[in-house]
């Protein structure tokens, strides 16, 4: 018999977070989160996302053992402002038992029906800065700190339960040696002169902070047309600034501004923390923080997390300025591999940016949808 229970207390939420640790115990590709960080994400008193969203965290039990988990989420900005009447689900993990998957999804369906929503979609988080997509190819690739890993049977469960593919995401990888500076060096100089633009580089986090709000504004503006986009609110900007910016290498954040000091493009790259997180085993202390700081300083792989260009400057080659700055930084750091985190498969514009570097698809992901 399968029992579903909502995780409410800190102990229950910790059990919820720890379940994948046992499910993927011997899997060398799964990358564990930091438990304390996940607890903060789920804390309705700390995460400002809950001002515009609600979420419920469910555990499935069989013979008194945890056999699955799921989060049922409503992003009210999405429902009310964009008229996308969907209930989301995320943080989904399960043993290979379709009855457990069915029982967990029923809790999400209940929430959707209770609020007169039209469909259920996932896996996805609260917003576009959260993890997204079920892995459907690339099970032999180590995950990143900003993606979920899962077993191949997950997709089979959804398909058998009548879910359809809603969106597909691609992850790419290419060796840094594929990046030839001559491909865009002259172009970026011409673009700078033509549009009176300049690149901003940083060596200290405190110098970045005055630009962060502008960056989030540009993020909202440049991503607005993407099908899955939900705007980042002012209170979320402050939260993300405090939580993440200080942890990203300042030299891995690049901005481009016009002659009047307006931000027209930005990019954020992160060193690969995957192996460090595997060594940390979910804990910052006593040694986890050391592994993460070591990776921040020495990792030879980098992940492109976000890149945004103002709509007025799209298709004008502004990305060449960003690539030139990264080429200089990566050369100094001895970077070997570049990873592109999940991008919508139908976002052809972003894929065109990278075509000269001969990237290879290493993972495919999907979100699944079903009418209520």
Model description:
With about 375 residues, this protein is of the alpha+beta class. Helices cover about 35% and strands about 30% of the residues. Strands 1, 2, 3, 4, 5, 6, 7, 8, 9, 10, 11, 12 and 13 form a 13-stranded mixed β-sheet that branches. Strand 9 and strand 10 form a beta hairpin. Helix 9 packs antiparallel against helix 10. The longest helix has 19 residues. The radius of gyration is 21 Å and the shape is globular. The two termini are about 25 Å apart. The model has no long low-confidence stretch (mean pLDDT about 95).
In brief, what are we looking at here?
Helix content is 36%, strand content 28%. By secondary structure, it is of the alpha+beta class.
Task: Give keywords.
12 helices, alpha+beta
Percent of sequence in beta strands: 25-35%
Structural class: alpha+beta
What is the count of β-strands? 13
Oligomer: single chain
Overall geometry: globular
Q: What does the average pLDDT come to?
A: 95
- Terminal Cα span: 25 Å
Low-confidence stretches: none
- The gyration radius over C-alpha positions equals 21 Å
Order of SSEs: EHHEEHEHEEHEHEHHEEHHEHEHE
> What composes the largest sheet?
13 strands, mixed
- Total helices: the number is 12
Helicity range: 25-40%
